[in-house]
Amino acid sequence: MVQVGKGDSSFSTCLARALGSAHNMVATSLKSQGSLRTTYRNCLSHLSELKRRGYLVLLSVEATLPSYEEETLISAIAGT
Prior knowledge:
The structure is a single chain. This protein is of the alpha/beta class. It has one domain. It is built from four helices and three strands, in the order βαβααβα. A three-stranded parallel β-sheet has the order 1-2-3, sandwiched between helices.
C-alpha cells in the first residue's frame, strides 16, 4: 500500500497502529524532512514511529509522477 503526501503522516501512523505493523507499506512526501519539520509540528515523531513499524518512508519524492527508479521501488514494495 502506498500513501502519497499525507501532510504530517498522522493518517499513516494511525493505520500502522491499527494494523500492528506496516511491512510492504510506503509513505511518501514531496517535502523534505526540514520542510516537513517547519510545516507540521508532530511530523518527525510520526515518521519515526512509521519507520519503527516497518514503513518505507520516502521524502522529497514526487509520487504522482515518479521517476522510473522510484516507480520500480514503490511497485516492488507494494507488491504491484
